[in-house]
Amino acid sequence: MGLPGHRRTSSHKRRRASHFALKRSNLSVCGHCHQPVVPHRVCANCGYYRGRQVIKVKSKLSAKARAKASQAASAAKDKKE
Questions:
Q1: Sites in the chain below the pLDDT cut of 50
Q2: Domain assignment of residue 5, yes or no
Q3: Pick from 5, 9, 72, 78: CA 20 to 30 A from residue 64's CA?
């Protein structure tokens, strides 16, 4: 079994470990729904890629919640007018 030949100094360890940091991910904007999306991937929000629908994405809201949300939106719109 091999043993270390020389002591690794703390500065050498830190210099070696300087590349271990996480990189910030680059996000682009979906052309269809304008949500942040990883480049070259299908948008998880709407299912579009390069201007066309590739997958069908189920709505995250149930039918009752969707109806309630639309009622709240129309009520807010009526208040503005």
A1: none
A2: no
A3: 78
